[in-house]
């Protein structure tokens, strides 16, 4: 995918900007040359500015809707594989502050400027970041507090999608063990989960968060309500 990364605003097919809560929005879009879908999550901080997690280049209508929500101020690049539209966002919004997990920073910086690691992010009462344990600091979590409760936003640490039938999709979802979800994929365990017990403790802690109302992951399905805790608990069984 690296050869496709540029600072051009290249809009692939995507869905609408879906409100999940009073300060949280979600977009699902295509990936080049594969059937998997990717997800962008947008959170609005207490000061009215926007935090964009795993950016997707939007069409004109959705881009106007995004900008009407607040000023894009922070771009989170959640690992070295989710860089596709990051350069385009930084070109369009040059004042963005870019953050990436410490263990993925070097890979992200091959394509886009990074201003800090997740622990450098200025948290407030609505949005904070954590680095996950047991994953070589390669991934983290965004926790968003809304009027209806708390949302946990992960990346490739947990997958929640259905198997695919095309060749590449079948390889990723079946051979690499990424579906059916929710689950921790075989590929994730091979690439970056080095301490399963420590990582399992992260998922347990998130599942037991008071007021947990939502789990968002990088690829496809959102788990709502009690399903959010159940999704995290099920994912733990794959470690």
Number of helices: 7
Structural class: alpha/beta
Q: What is the averaged pLDDT score?
A: 96
Q: What is the CATH architecture descriptor?
A: 4-Layer Sandwich
CATH top level assignment: Alpha Beta
Q: Please list the strands of the largest sheet in the order they lie side by side.
A: 1-2-3-4-5-6-7
* Count of individual beta strands: 12
CATH superfamily: Ribonuclease Z/Hydroxyacylglutathione hydrolase-like
Low-confidence stretches: none
- CATH fold-level assignment: Metallo-beta-lactamase, Chain A
Distance between the termini: 28 Å
Gyration radius, rounded: 16 Å
Strand content: 25-35%
Question: How many structural domains in the coordinates?
Answer: 1
Order of helices and strands: EEEEHEHEHEEEEHHHEEH
**Largest sheet data:** 7 strands, mixed
Which term fits the overall shape? globular
Helix content: 25-40%
Nutshell version of this structure?
This protein has 239 residues and is α/β, with parallel strands linked by helices. 25% of the residues lie in helices and 26% in strands.
What layout of secondary structure does this protein have?
Elements lengths: L17 E4 L2 E8 L2 E11 L5 E4 L6 H10 L2 E5 L9 H7 L4 E4 L4 H5 L6 E2 L9 E5 L8 E7 L2 E5 L13 H9 L10 H6 L4 H12 L4 E5 L6 E2 L1 H11 L3
Parallel strand pairs: 4-5, 5-6, 6-7, 10-11
Antiparallel strand pairs: 1-2, 2-3, 3-4, 8-9, 9-10, 11-12
Helix pairs in contact: 6-7
